[in-house]
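INTERNAL TRANSFER SHEET
From: sequence group
To: structure group
Subject: Flagella basal body P-ring formation protein FlgA

Please process the attached sequence and return the structure record in the designated field. Keep the field labels unchanged so the import script can parse them.
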Amino acid sequence: MIHSVLSPSAPHNGKGFFRLTLAAALLCFAATSAAAPPTPASARKQVHTRVQQAASDAIRQEAQRNRWEDYQAKLNLFIPSEISQYTPCGAPLTVSMPSGERLDLRRLRFDVRCDSANGWEVAVTVKPDIYLSVLMAKNTLERGHVLGPSDITLKKFNISNLRSGYITHPDDVVGLTLKRRVRELQPLSMNQLDSPVMVERGQRVLMIADQDGVEARTMGIATKKGRKGEMIKVKNESSEREVTAIVSDMGVVRTNLSAKN
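Return from structure group:
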């Protein structure tokens, strides 16, 4: 935009004022003529904008499902070079993910389609970097260690590079046992962890049976070790009958009154 500024000392006689007015009008006309109409966004720009929006929405939904409290995402888009051969789309682009494809945060694929005249279609890959606070081991921990609150810490990490998964809530791991050695500041995942052994082989256990609202208790001997929720064989001390029971707590199993070997 051009701004004309008149000097207080400028002459205001007829010819001088006419020349000044004419010059200003010509400048305004020239500026208006020189202003080119807005250039429509290129096909590449259209695709970039729509895929970036679709990827952000997909990651936001994933964050809600997994209860991410705070995250940062950087999107790296890979658009095929053939897009430079296409004309800008005159209609809103249609963006979709392949049906049935599980969301893989390491690599997202979007099919982009232009439905206007001379329409076209391209497949775009998005590789996001998602930084999220995940649980890590404060120090190196050995196999068999039972995790406590003092063993873990939350730190930001690029979860897109974690093939084995991640954990964001301390309550999900406290009390679990490490299956293998974990290094200092190594992100924790559920496949590294196991429930602690609650019943040892040969251990005397409390057997609780519940049927039709009637609860019966007796003692038995476990024939194998078990973790919470696992099914094991237990020999009833009174009847000497071996039954199948579910480990429910330390030294406690539950079974049905009618359960038989």
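Handover comment: The CA atoms of residues 42 and 204 lie 75 Å apart. The radius of gyration is 35 Å.
Transfer complete.
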